[in-house]
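Data availability (excerpt). The following record was deposited with the supplementary files.
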Amino acid sequence: MTTAWDIPMNPLADSTLPPSPLTAQIRWGFKLFMNTPEEAARFSPNKLSCNNCHLNAGQKEKAMPLVGIAAIYPEYNKREGRLFSLEDRIVGCFRRSMGAVRNDAIPENHSPEVLAISAYLAWLSRGFPVGKSPAWRGHNVIPSHKLLPLERLDALRGEELFKEKCTNCHGQDGQGVQIGDKKAGPLWGPDSWNDGAGAARVYTLAGMIRHAMPYLDPGSLTDEEAQHIAAFICSQSRPEYPHKSLDYRVEPLPPDAVYYGKRKQD
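Predicted structure:
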């Protein structure tokens, strides 16, 4: 089966899509994905877009691609301990990664923006079997036997590596550098993801860094280097997710969920 990164897909340029309300939603969903703060301002008070984590419109291999992802839902979510629909997952990203909890306007499964992004992801999932996880899913991880204990991670070493490997795109202050019409999203501070987001987990972030970064030379960092960089980024200040007490009440608290403090595991 041809993957999206072999032949990049853009619904704005897809002449096979018939004029219809669904086509309009797919195309708006693509725009929302690429420029979330502008297209979904009420749900995106920070400066991040979906595209900042799921690179190239969710179609870059080893950068958490979303091709085929709609076919796996509904799926059990360990963090909230319940079954998730695709729309639940999008709402969670708005609340945790885009900081929608700061606003009075809280995204819901039936919100127009949520449904439009769902339509775009369904379009990316055409032809994939329902209930079967895509072969490329879950590859942005560091093997368990390569994970360093948290106490061995060195944020100062991570800062050195960040300055050496990451500042061309992310800047010394981690807020992103403007390169043409593109800018990397802020990695910490008030305009970054909050401390309830998936990227706020050290090992999760390290896996993203290890396989997708640096952008022009992905995979060039070692497992250990990626973990030190993640420890540095996670040591920086970021907005607080106000509902963390509701997370991990069914499943054990992961050891790298550092922003959850020393809460006793159930």
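Summary of structural features: The radius of gyration is 18 Å.
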